[in-house]
Amino acid sequence: MLTTASDIEVLARFGRALADPIRCRILLSLREAPAYPADLADGLGISRTRLSNHLACLRDCGLVATTPDGRRTRYALADERLGHALDDLRTAVLAVETDRTCADADSKGCCR
Fold it and tell me: Domain count of the chain?
């Protein structure tokens, strides 16, 4: 199968979204069920402003979608297959190396 520039951009976009632990927590939470920002912020223990910035990033990456609900906006994964992809990535990494951590996990360097 021929890999195109579009394929690479899609994977890079997904990687950028997953590069931040808060965005990972948001995606995993939305994998369970759609949610409103206030509920997400409370559940994740972060400020609404900080959550808003991360939701904007995930929206820009095309990973979450919004649905207006009166004066509120509900967030959900843009496609249910993203939930399956998150599960597959998590279990694949655990299956390969259960005792490893990313050397750059705590740095602000290459992954940002």
Answer: 1
